[in-house]
Amino acid sequence: MKALEITKPGAARLVDRPEPTPAPGELLLRIHTVGYCGTDLSTYRGRNPLVAYPRIPGHEVAAVVEGLGEGVSDWTVGEQLLVFPYTECGVCSSCLAGRPNCCKNNQTLGVQRDGVLAEFATIPAGKAMRAAGLGPRELALVEPLTVGAHAVARGQVTAGETVAVFGCGAIGLGAIAAASYLGARVVAIDVDDAKLDLAAACGAAERLHSIRDDLGARLNELTEGHGPAVVIEAVGLPATFRAAVDLVAFAGRVVYIGYAKEPVAYETKWFVMKELDIRGSRNALARDFEQVIAMLAAGRVPTERIVTQDVSLADAPTALANWDRAPGDVTKIHVQLRK
Ligand SMILES: [Zn+2]
Ligand SMILES: [Zn+2]
């Protein structure tokens, strides 16, 4: 079978690999659609310290059951599914606290182990999820949207609250769609007007341009001078990390999904004076997947606009290289493997 391999930083190519056979308890999958994740781009750029090369990337997947390993009885050949891409250790403090999404020893498909950007793949049957009524496009979008949905859960967002989201890439859009789905009023913030339009299509009631608009003044206007109850940061820059704390309401919540690549200097008095809840958000839980599946089934996400490019497996290495050169042009690339 053909697979996409990131051989070393900056080098992606198609390779021949033996078609896998499912071990007991596993499913053999015929891969239909795989979304490129920001993580896959980091791997290509050699910026993900968790990756050893060569690596087959890919964990945002729509697939069809092609075969069953011994002992698998709850799946049938031909069923469509998506894959829960995380494997937790079960014994670290996160796992023991019922929060396996932030497992200290987590392994994600395509990062610490080979992913599914290949014609076939095997996975433990317990990692397969059904999503009745969703097509391959939606199935492959579930996982990236769950990351934002988990941040909304971490922010304990409730209906009627104002939630500001920094960053309208694939992850930020998931947060916007999930918060709006819960009935919050979402203010989307970005430097790119096209991304702000997409944010509005995902449910953002207001959009602010981080350079043209005076964010503090506009957010105060929208909230009777209080500031947003929740700020979610999905950019990963020191300036937006700081702005989240500066702009959030007193007694508000700040949730960070982005990874700032450099240290961030804070006016820490705001942590205390505002008595902030500042929380990190990593990956997602099974219940976030269920929420996103419901949100997609309800037609709340403009999936055809979020996917900015469809490519074949043969063109997938070039698409990755182009994404590396012009990251701003891409919200989501889908690799279509079905012939
Ligand atoms: Zn992903
Ligand atoms: Zn663990």
UniProtKB/TrEMBL annotation:
Q: Which UniProt keywords apply?
A: Oxidoreductase
One GO term in the molecular function aspect is: oxidoreductase activity
- The highest taxon in the source lineage is Bacteria
Which InterPro entries does the record cross-reference, listed alphabetically? Answer: ADH-like_C, ADH-like_N, GroES-like_sf, NAD(P)-bd_dom_sf, Zn_alcohol_dh
Q: What is its EC number?
A: 1.1.1.-
Q: Which residues form the Alcohol dehydrogenase-like N-terminal domain?
A: 24-130
Top EC group: oxidoreductase
Known CDD domains for this protein?
A: Zn_ADH7
Ranges for the Alcohol dehydrogenase-like C-terminal domain?
Answer: 170-297
Please give the name of this protein: L-galactonate oxidoreductase
